[in-house]
């Protein structure tokens, strides 16, 4: 029995280090989550009866260690039911801390019983200090691997020199989406259906969905009659290819699936033409390559999304359970750090345009540009006038998506259920 206890403890510790240090959106990671839960439940079941026999354990260190582990394990089981959303982080960290300290003591007692800690008191103290150092190093390493690379991933940085003409933007004239600067990972098409599944998000983010539903972003495609008419006119005078430039910012469902290669009159009545800028447009942008606008971003189609949108009740339940138990892969799939830290540069990818020969068959002309005006203004914290403005710079989201309380009790994006603050989409 003792051997099994130690073995499952080892399996739990190893899987925990991996789960914490290397979150990723892969089937193998999710399987490891399930593995950790299953072994955790098993160990808890083994530990509870053992608790009453603890007095009989000789080594005091082992006794304290197992006691810590029992509390940590029970908290772990509670976490399976309540999930590990941001607001529950203190509980997750309590679970981790209790289990780490418990494992450290049990490991020390086990080594002592095998004579590996040495015989003199000095030996023991030094080797125990070594163990503590090693544990701290592993914890720090896991934290470093989880946080630093992720935070610095794909920061928005401008190239040294802008392209001399539109031909140097995005994939160039050979690209699938030219003259839009938009690109997709692996240069592949993305199924149109993907951008039409905002309802899949509504399940858990009902408030945000409601706000988005009546926003301009929802009505950016041919469900906006001014835009539809503009494209009809443009295709008449400049052709279909040139109008793909507009689609990079207005019609993700049509452009990234290849449907926009057809003239508007063949596609205008399709449901894809009414999807607008859905949740999955903004939340699939994995990189913004400059502040030049023109849709200068890279989109990624997260394969696992098919599980979230699945109609199969078993798959869906499992997905929802995993998102609640460990939302980190979900968070990392749908929100890259630059969306929060460099929101203005993110918005600039669509809110700044210039036209050039491939679009207007004439010459370079600046279109509308909200980014540069914001940057030059005082509120950005980047212009000379910022000297006179309040201490904290304001990004686009601070005015256009102010934090509001939310009633979403299922996703519980922030704070307690029913009284969560979320970004209100689009004033
Ligand atoms: C099963 C419920 C569920 C579904 C369906 C769901 N989410 Fe989430 N979402 C969550 C949870 C839980 C969190 C984490 C909240 C927390 O940690 O407080 C979250 C967080 C997020 C975040 C914030 C990430 C961060 O770093 O703070 C974004 C963005 C997001 N979801 C987008 C989406 C999009 C887009 C969809 C639709 C494809 C979607 N979600 C569908 C449950 C869900
Ligand atoms: C994928 C491209 C894209 C991104 C990214 C984007 N927008 Fe937009 N936005 C648009 C388009 C296109 C419209 C116009 C839709 C329409 O009316 O047809 C628009 C409209 C708006 C409007 C309404 C404008 C009006 O005249 O009423 C606001 C406000 C806005 N966006 C703010 C933002 C903010 C803030 C961000 C960054 C968080 C952002 N947008 C990111 C494409 C984008
Ligand atoms: C770089 C991204 C981008 C490109 C390319 C782009 N737009 Fe827009 N479009 C926007 C944004 C962002 C807005 C909202 C801006 C604002 O209100 O100031 C907008 C607004 C509009 C509007 C006003 C919608 C309304 O309801 O008021 C029309 C019409 C429009 N665009 C048509 C076009 C056409 C036609 C093209 C191609 C010739 C095009 N756009 C290319 C991003 C873009
Ligand atoms: C025009 C781009 C855009 C669209 C469309 C969009 N979002 Fe977001 N979303 C953002 C940005 C940018 C942020 C981060 C804002 C910040 O924290 O500064 C964000 C934040 C979030 C968050 C985290 C909220 C929080 O309180 O931190 C969730 C959840 C989310 N979005 C879900 C959705 C869902 C669901 C939809 C569709 C109904 C949607 N978004 C549509 C750009 C967008
Ligand atoms: C300090 C608050 C604030 C910040 C920061 C801010 N805006 Fe605005 N924005 C406003 C207000 C207020 C209006 C309405 C102005 C009006 O109606 O004349 C507006 C209007 C707009 C419009 C509609 C323009 C139109 O022609 O009707 C768009 C699009 C927009 N902002 C995008 C952005 C983007 C993108 C950013 C970041 C680069 C940004 N805003 C930053 C407050 C802000």
Overview of this protein structure:
It is a single chain. Residues 409-422 have low confidence and may be disordered. The protein has 20 helices and 7 strands. Helix 2 (27-51) packs across helix 3 (60-82). The chain has 427 residues and is mostly helical. The radius of gyration is 27 Å and the shape is elongated. Strand 2 and strand 3 form a beta hairpin. The longest helix is centred in the N-terminal third of the chain and has 32 residues, at 121-152. 53% of the residues lie in helices and 6% in strands. It folds into 2 domains: 2-153, no CATH class; 166-301 and 342-367, no CATH class. The structure holds heme C (5 copies). The site of one heme C has 23 residues, from helix 6, helix 12, helix 14 and helix 15.
